[in-house]
Amino acid sequence: MTRRDAGFTLIEMLAVLAVLALVASIVVAHGPARSQALEARGAASQMASALRQARGLAIGSGQAVLMVMDVARGGYGLQGGPMQMLPAGLVMAAPAGIRFRPDGSSSGGQVELRDGQRRLRVGVDWLSGRVTVAEMAGDEP
Is there a domain that residue 20 lies in? Predict the structure, then answer.
């Protein structure tokens, strides 16, 4: 084996680096992988969590707490607080607000989130204030 046969040449190394740079630029330009289904489920989970926090706040403070639903803008939040906006493409059908009482009960209600054929329902039981998330079939009312 001669000294010339061992290792890589500078041209070979530059060719490999150029290919790696090209692949990296394609991956970066494409952006992160995104799933509308995961985005919708994530938004429903975040809304359910916010509703549970509102219930906990009502119980802890001994005062009623109102979670406002802004259907026109696609957001929700505690009355007087900042609004959490839904991801683009997600449509909300909901009552104007859901009130939680100090005993843990609520005014109850259902929030439906839709993006095309996918439908998710965030429900709040009026008696217990329990918050649930369910994925609905396309033909379900």
Answer: no
Assessment of whether the complete model's pTM goes beyond 0.85: no
Q: Is 15 contained in some domain?
A: no
| Domain residue limits at 60 | 36-136
On whether the CB atoms of residues 108 and 125 are closer than 8 A, the answer is yes
- Is 110 among the domain residues? yes
Percent of the chain at pLDDT exceeding 90: 69
Q: What is the DSSP string of 27-85?
A: HHHH-S---HHHHHHHHHHHHHHHHHHHHHHHHHHTS-EEEEEETTTTEEEETTSPPEE
pLDDT one-digit tens code per residue, 42-94: 999 999 999 999 999 999 999 999 999 999 999 999 999 999 999 988 999 99
**What's the CATH number where 85 sits?**
3.55.40.10
